[in-house]
Amino acid sequence: MNHVTVGEYWNANAEAWTKLARAGHDVLRDQLNTPAFLALLPPVDGLAGLDLGCGEGHNTRLVARRGARLTGIDIAEVFIRHAQAEEARAPLGITYRQASAVELPFAAETFDFAIACMSLMDIPETEQVLAEAFRVLRPGGFLQFSILHPCFNPPHRRSLRDDDRRTYAIEVGDYFIEARGRIDEWTFGTAPAALRERLPKFKVPRFHRPVSQWLNLLLAAGFILERFEEPCPGPAAVEAHPLLQDAAVAAYFLHVRVRRPGRAGGTP
Ligand SMILES: C[S@@+](CC[C@H](N)C(=O)[O-])C[C@H]1O[C@@H](n2cnc3c(N)ncnc32)[C@H](O)[C@@H]1O
């Protein structure tokens, strides 16, 4: 499966995803992943940034509110349409374009930074995406991204629960087997049953790479590794949102920041 076919799946997911995420049902994103991602993000005020796989633009808007001039791209036309409608309703100076991260429609060295929230692991052509991100970044620019943690979200994952339904361990397997486009069907667990029944389940093509592959591909692309984070919800967050409990047992997400070598605006 290539990025074009993956894009067709995401385009079909986009209507229901936008509705449910905007209604607050992407709890892991809103209560854990995005706050940790923003805490890791360096100051971006006045910088030109690119959001790779921006979806309906939720995180693009949050970063734009920090003073950056954002461009969001996504392969799914339906997501881009929703993102543009929200920009028209409440402008933040964001430009959205339908495009694949595998073939970015931008000149070399256009952006000071790039972000990619839970999108890079959905694109099979990882080498090309990293090469494209490197190309459009100015020297000294950074790429910060979040992915499903490869160690604890490989093709086989199961939560082991005690009698009180609390997760005490995560069973993982098939770590070295690349899930090249296996279709996972699911929806956001907190959505009310009536809504879930009305909306189609998401069909998400899965691509898994062991963590060593991610690191080696980033290095091969020419990036310097800068930061690694594994967001962990605190007890208060788990109490308020029990869905987060699994992520306190083993990391659900991996956050990485890498940098294109060289001084911004100067000689490398
Ligand atoms: C899990 S969603 C994340 C959306 C958004 N970044 C967020 O955090 O809410 C993954 C996104 O990656 C996009 N995507 C998948 N393949 C892509 C590609 N080749 N180029 C650009 N976007 C892509 C999908 O359309 C989808 O919007």
Helical proportion, percent range = 25-40%
Instruction: Give average pLDDT, whole number.
Output: 95
Bin the strand percentage.
25-35%
Strand order of the largest sheet: 3-2-1-4-5-11-10
Q: Sum up the overall morphology in one term.
A: globular
Q: Number of helix segments?
A: 9
In CATH, the homologous superfamily goes by the name Vaccinia Virus protein VP39
Distance between the ends = 37 Å
- The oligomerization state is single chain
CA-based gyration radius: 18 Å
Helix and strand topology:
Blueprint: H1 3-22, H2 27-40, E1 48-52, H3 58-64, E2 69-74, H4 77-89, E3 95-98, E4 111-117, H5 126-136, E5 137-148, E6 156-161, E7 167-173, E8 182-186, H6 193-198, E9 202-206, H7 211-220, E10 224-229, H8 235-240, H9 245-249, E11 253-259
Parallel strand pairs: 1-2, 1-4, 2-3, 4-5
Antiparallel strand pairs: 5-11, 6-7, 8-9, 10-11
Helix pairs in contact: 1-4
The chain binds S-adenosylmethionine (SAM).
S-adenosylmethionine (SAM) binds next to helix 1, helix 3 and strand 2.
Description:
The protein has 268 residues and is an alpha/beta fold. Helix 1 (3-22) packs parallel to helix 4. The protein has a single domain, classed as Vaccinia Virus protein VP39 (Rossmann fold). It contains 9 helices and 11 strands. It has a 7-stranded mixed sheet, sandwiched between helices. Helix content is 34%, strand content 26%. It has helices at residues 3-22, 27-40, 58-64, 77-89, 126-136, 193-198, 211-220, 235-240, 245-249, and strands spanning 48-52, 69-74, 95-98, 111-117, 137-148, 156-161, 167-173, 182-186, 202-206, 224-229, 253-259. Strand 2 (69-74), helix 4 (77-89) and strand 3 (95-98) form a beta-alpha-beta unit.
